[in-house]
Write a structure and sequence with these properties.
The chain is of the alpha/beta class. It contains 15 helices and 9 strands.
């Protein structure tokens, strides 16, 4: 799933918040959702489908909007915050500050450090040379065995080299800048926003992607910004998909379990099968969803889920949502 131009819908953002133990935006009453970014109107149409209580809006990121917008429950930046220049990023923050309701959710995706550190010289080369000349220059450098490419064979580098034309489009934007989470979080704190979760739902369960020693190191971090920096160093994060709330309210664990248990899932890719160490668990969930939409509580009652609590089953369901195997059914219909 290409998540650069992905705009998470209201249900997905709410699910990420609830996995983190935060109160979601109610979808059983009227709500407002704003997509910021290039191609915003087509994104608006895609997200709006199936949400009769939602009012959906679109605008170009970084453009002054005046007082034309109503208060928003969701603001989603489509594309990359890191592609905007500093003035445009400040305009985004000012818009969020002016328009997002208390309890509202904002989604910000951006090229992140330290994972993008390997591509900074490549970005500068493209910017200095221009796209067409840079492609030829890069091939020449790789052809003669330039040490830079061998020494920086990281996922961020490979993804740009494998799709060099889009990379040139990205790198020639005048404002392109890889960002640390700490700097983004502090900037958004000026709009009274607090980081609560990643829209990549697999991040909610560090035990799945960190060793025991790495998990202990992460858990020892008590300062939220430092915790995310340590996570990004452990993962060499190259792109972050951050979810922020204005005035976050923590859920009681019983309410969290009740909300997650009632969350309805539907099968998205009927022939797909998840892979990984818990393949049997995923297969049982997919088989159940093949019969028809199921609340997570029904999935938690499967024999294969014996011994798992609702949050653990919801985290497994989040992996199916991340991979596109399942979708959240409309909770506000």
């Amino acid at each position: 799933m290409d998540k650069l131009w992905w705009e998470p819908g209201p249900e997905h953002l709410n699910f990420a918040c609830v996995l983190a133990g935060m109160e979601p935006v109610p979808l059983d009453r009227a709500f407002n959702y704003l997509v910021l970014g290039c191609g915003g109107e087509s994104a608006q149409a895609r997200v709006a489908g199936g949400h009769p209580r939602g009012s959906f809006h679109a605008a170009d990121a970084g453009m002054p909007l005046g007082a034309a917008l109503p208060p928003m429950d969701f603001i989603v930046l489509r594309g990359a915050y890191s592609w905007l220049d500093r003035n445009q990023r400040q305009q985004v923050i000012e818009l969020i500050n002016a328009c997002l309701k208390p309890g509202g959710v904002a989604y910000i995706g951006y090229d992140a450090l330290p994972g993008c550190s390997s591509i900074l010289p490549l970005q500068r080369l493209v910017r200095e040379q221009g796209g067409l000349h840079a492609a030829a220059q890069v091939e020449q450098l790789r052809g003669v065995g330039a040490a830079y490419f061998a020494d920086n064979d990281a996922p961020a580098m490979r993804s740009r080299l494998d799709a060099f034309a889009p990379a040139c489009h990205e790198f020639t934007r005048r404002g392109w800048e890889a960002l640390y989470h700490a700097d983004v979080a502090r900037a958004l704190a000026d709009a009274k926003l607090e980081y609560v979760a990643s829209a990549d739902l697999w991040w909610s369960d560090p035990g799945r992607y960190l060793s025991a020693a790495q998990r202990a190191l992460l858990d020892a971090q008590t300062v939220p910004i430092l915790r995310e920096m340590v996570r990004d160093i452990l993962l060499d994060t190259a792109f972050r998909r951050d979810v922020y709330i204005r005035g976050a309210r923590r859920m009681h664990p019983m309410r969290q379990a009740d909300w997650l248990g009632k969350c309805p899932l539907s099968l998205s890719l009927a022939e797909a099968r998840a892979e990984g160490r818990d393949e049997a668990l995923f297969a049982s969930m997919l088989d159940a969803l093949a019969v028809g939409p199921q609340p997570i509580a029904a999935l938690a009652s499967l024999p294969e889920m014996r011994g798992k609590n609702m949050l653990e089953v919801a985290r497994l369901a989040g992996l199916l949502l991340d991979s596109g195997h399942a979708v959240i059914s409309n909770q506000g219909a």
